[in-house]
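User: I'm curious whether this sequence folds into something compact or stays loose and floppy. Could you predict its structure so I can see for myself?
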Amino acid sequence: MSDESEYLYVLARDVGAALEQAGLKLVTAESCTGGWVAECVTDIPGSSNWYDRGFVTYSNEAKCEVLDVDPNLIETHGAVSEAVVRALAAGALQHSRAEVAVAVSGIAGPSGGTAGKPAGTVWFAWQRLGQACRVRLERFAGDRKEVRRQAVAVALQGVLDVCKK
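Assistant: Here's the prediction. I'll summarize afterward.
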């Protein structure tokens, strides 16, 4: 196992322990990470005790059809935006039996970026039932795989943080 794979494994294991201790289940809503967060959590033995399901909504249409994101949000703010990740997290909770959601939408690159949203731009949202949604913007450096790997790590760390509060 590579160092970066081991880091993600340990982080996912810690997320699972925190969720299980709190009696919570997780749902994921992923775009640019393409299910990598779900892969990390399901690598952990016993994850069925605390992981409910995952949604990979890569296209704008999928975001709207599967997780009820308002198309006007995407048209107004773009798929990579605070408004859209908030809507993804809310939609994931609505369409699952989980109490904690993480949503990720970004531009992994190398193309697809703009001056305002360059490659490496990633928005995150973490929503726990009964609590305010937390959002975060990151601008990662590196190639496509490295941007996605960093996004997975931030997504998992955010879940861990939400479980502790």
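Summary: The mean pLDDT is 96. The first helix runs from residue 3 to 22.
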